[in-house]
Design brief:
207 residues, mainly alpha, Protein Binding, DinI Protein, Chain A, two-stranded parallel ribbon
Length: 207
């Protein structure tokens, strides 16, 4: 996730020396910002609802598939019973062939359903992340311009070798909490505050 939301400033950081910078260099933990942004759990919950809905439909289809398998097994057990006449056995074999075709079709339907909805979920997840990432990077860019920052480095990122991009930085350089506050300043209240009379009643009960 950190690589996805990293601010693209590494080439600039490598090509510009510290002496040539006129503004501050700051760091931000974009992974922490992503997780702390109030819209992230909301989007994640919506994605989970979609996943749960698809899973339920898949489970219903698979239950039907198992039922068809059981019926196919019973038909196979009966098709060659010696007490049946040749005509009945032939009818049983046709029933087995029809049930087998029906079962195979249902299996293909389940596989197609899973493949299609896996793609839908991946696309929905990607859109959700891209939307949130854009909102975060827009805030970071605006804050950098407003505060006159010369460079903003994502300290949650790593190199291709797994080494942290920012090996060391002072806490005073970190603007993560500032970005989180800006993003969450318009967070809607999850519950309404109790009316004054209700507050007084609760205080009276405590006494």
């Amino acid at each position: 996730m950190a690589a996805l939301i990293a601010v693209g400033v590494w080439a600039l950081a490598l090509s510009v020396s510290a002496q040539g910078l006129t503004g501050r260099i700051v760091t931000v933990d974009l992974n922490k910002v992503f997780n702390a942004y109030y819209k992230t759990p909301i989007a994640t919950a919506k994605l989970k609802e979609t996943i749960d809905s698809y899973r339920k439909e898949h489970d219903d289809m698979f239950a039907d598939y198992k039922k068809q398998i059981d019926e196919l097994s019973k038909l196979r057990d009966e098709q060659d019973k010696p007490e049946y006449t040749a005509e009945v056995r032939e009818q049983k074999r046709k029933a087995v062939a029809e049930k087998l075709a029906e079962t195979q079709k249902l299996q293909r339907d389940i596989e197609e359903y899973d493949a299609n909805h896996r793609k839908i979920l991946e696309e929905q997840s990607q859109r959700m992340r891209q939307t949130i990432v854009k909102e975060i990077t827009d805030v970071v860019n605006k804050e950098a311009r407003d505060q006159g920052y010369q460079l903003v480095l994502d300290k949650s990122g790593s190199t291709i070798n797994g080494v942290p991009m920012v090996v060391f930085s002072l806490d005073t350089m970190d603007i993560t909490d500032d970005i989180v506050k800006i993003l969450n300043k318009n967070q809607p209240k999850t519950a309404e505050s109790p009316a004054p009379a209700e507050k007084d009643q609760k205080q009276g009960d405590k006494k």
